[in-house]
Amino acid sequence: MLARSGLVLLFVLATAACFEVGPEEAAPRRARFSANSPNDVAKCLNGAVAVGCGVFACLENSTCDTDGMHDICQLFLHTAATFNTQGKTFVKESLRCIAQGITSKVFQTIRRCNVFQRMIAEVQEECYNSLDICTVARTNPDAIGEVVQVPAHFPNRYYSTLLQSLLACDEQTVAAVRAGLISRLGPDMETFFLLLQNKPCITYRNDYLLPPNVLDCDLR
User: Fold this and answer.
1) Would residue 26 count as lying in a domain?
2) Does residue 25 fall inside a structural domain?
3) Transmembrane region positions (predicted)?
4) Is pLDDT at 156 greater than 60 in this prediction?
């Protein structure tokens, strides 16, 4: 049973890590109950302040499927006290950088969901890189390990962007992140990291799961 559960976890994580938006998703998906339209999201972002998680709360429950950044923001804030001085600065500045980047580009991208989704991920990655997430992760492995948890909802492209940013770091940093996740989630995470580093893409054909090497995908 434990082995089966581990395989299920691995599949879900790999699916999240490979998630990308196809051409058919260029328009907003069918609205969920009480879901926010792109116009609602734009208005919310226009009035939000780039401090805390207010901007990211605007992205939740959207017909454009932009959930995920709010959870990441909350995780960073909840673990901020465990980071060193540089790490605390990174938490504050990265959240502000992403929030400001999203709000500055929302009206240029909100009309097409796939463009809006991609913009958020690109801003997220740019902010992580410009603020040196690799050094922060290397010097705060336990704190980063608390942040890099399995997201509550799948698929989650922004969790994937966070992981990919960490896996693009030097070997020492990647090893620290890997060790932290394996200690929390078990040995199946080692296979998950191999999948991530090879950037496979899990896909379906006639409702059957195809092997990871059937289709290569670029998260961007």
Assistant:
1) no
2) no
3) none
4) yes
| Rounded CA separation 173/46 (Å) | 37
Tokens 């465990």 correspond to what residue? 82
Residue 30 lies in a domain: no
Residue range of the domain that includes 127: 10-17+36-216
| The two structure tokens encoding residue 123 | 């801003």
Amino acid at 69: M
CA angle, residues 209, 167, 108, in degrees to nearest 5? 80
7-46 b/e (C-beta count within 10 Å ≥ 16 → b):
eebbeebbbbbbbbbeeeeeebeeeeeebbebeebbebbe
- How far is the C-alpha of 123 from the C-alpha of 184, rounded, in Å? 29
143-152 pLDDT per residue, tens? 998 888 766 6
- Reference 42, options 21, 23, 63; nearest CA is 63
For residue 67, give both structure tokens.
């959930």
The tally of domains found in the chain comes to 1
Residue 74, in any domain of the structure = yes
